Predict the structure.
Amino acid sequence: MFAKQLTVFIENRTGRLSEVLNVLKENNINILSLSLADTTEYGLLRLMVDNAPLGKEKLSENGFSSLLSNVSIIKIPHKAGSLQELLKVIDDNGVNIEYMYGLSIESTDAYVVLKASNADKVDAILTENNIETISCDTLSKM
Amino acid sequence: MIWNETKECMSRDEMHNLQSKRLIKLVDYVYHNVEFYRKKMQAVGLLPCDIKAIEDITKLPFTTKDDLRDNYPFGLFAVPNSEIVRIHASSGTTGKATVVGYTRRDIEIWSECVARCFTMAGVSKDDIIQVAYGYGLFTGGLGAHNGAEKIGATVVPMSTGNSKKLTTMMVDFGATAIACTPSYLLHISEVLAEEGLLDKIKLKNAICGAEPWTDQMRLEIEKRLNIRAFDIYGLSEIMGPGVACDCKFHKGLHVCEDHFYPEVLDTKTLIPVADGVLGELAFTTLTKEGIPLIRYRTKDLTSIDHSACECGRTSARISKFKGRSDDMLIIRGVNVFPSQIEAALCELDEVTPHYMMIVDRVNNLDTLEIQVELNPNYYTDEVRVLESLTKKIAHTIQQALGINAKIKIVEPQTLVRSQGKAVHVIDNRKLI
Ligand SMILES: [Zn+2]
């Protein structure tokens, strides 16, 4: 199962991140998690929100370029070594991970967002190994 | 010292007669050897015998850079390739280069002109001169080289790109002169200062050209290096460096008028203006065999002064350039037209055709930043993709213009879209 991630390109200028967040707030879009990949010139703000298509539309209206992409939200046990075990499964199948970031942590489980060079293959690998993935909807109702 | 007193100090009457004689011969020559000029003259009902003196030059058609491009590569050559001994080329407004060819005699005259200029700048056979212009298709390196050799100076063909080697050899060889761009020389002065070599050099004179610079910049160079600096001018279409140079009085650049006839034209009417009035510079190559050009419009804005100079030379002097009548930029000695950037970007699907060029001078070297917007179809969530895209754009620009640019991707709709003539260039260079 895939989840839709919203990615926003922002230049490294004072206040730009805040402007993006303001657009989301004005439209009552809730942020579930985020990660910022930054270079000296620009940043890629990756967001898990409760309504990604609406977020894209509103950001575009406000002059921001954004992209919806398929990522996996993977449930792993909240204990030492579980992330490493997950990566081992993916590595063993020869898939490259582009990036990942942590999401929410509950008492027994944790969630990570993962984007691989081949999203479909990762999805198949996860299913084969009985590793649970969830949707944004499920996530936003937690 | 004057290299060729007969030619450089002749009376205005004698010069007038010589120019008239040479123009008559030139017009006859191009009419019979260059179809382009024959057709242009026939179109206005002009015969070679209608040209009787230099004043009649205004009856003749102009030549533009477009004409050179349209006749790429050899269409305007007046001799078969068996007579051409060398080719040079410079970048034009499109991907196509402007190509020029030289006969053996052309090369000799070019060397003569550079020898006059370098002598004007105080260079003699006793000098060791480092030529730090690029050697290759660009006329700077080989042009300066041949002229310095003709004088009998000891020529060190440094070319460009290795400042450390240049400063080391400047000290070790005891170089007394250097030929390079003014911005590069400022950079060299900083390298020398950093290495603590400023008091170990024997440099006396610098001949700088290939990019516009001010008197203030000259004074700064002279102060930093404790030398005298001179401005040499030229363009490959006409010959290369050596078309004109300033003497120690720095009151305009003496034109080698017996070979290159200068006209300053009103930018609207294209009628020659009086001495002291700003206009577009045009040249007629009075003696060139390979690719003779008539009334070639340089787009450089200048004024002309025909009065005698304190140095004893009588040749006309053109003022330092006051700009261009087109949008050409000179960045690190390379001619850059914004339209070239636009054309290069249009080849790439990943970006929109909107762009902004930001030109600056950092540590005395020109920098070029090109800002582009991503095509929405190529938005990405991976930094790696953006990084490889900026590399790809930089490579495309390098291939098209021969210049390294820093590429900056900006947010959509941030680059100015203006009605009519868009502003695509911010030039922050202060010529000191
Ligand atoms: Zn003079």
Notes: Chain B has a mean pLDDT of 91. The CA atoms of residues 182 and 208 of chain B lie 5 Å apart. The pocket of zinc ion is lined by residues B 247, 249, 254, 309, 311, 313 (CB under 6 Å). Chain B touches chain A at residues 374, 376, 379-384, 386-387, 408-414 (CB under 8 Å).
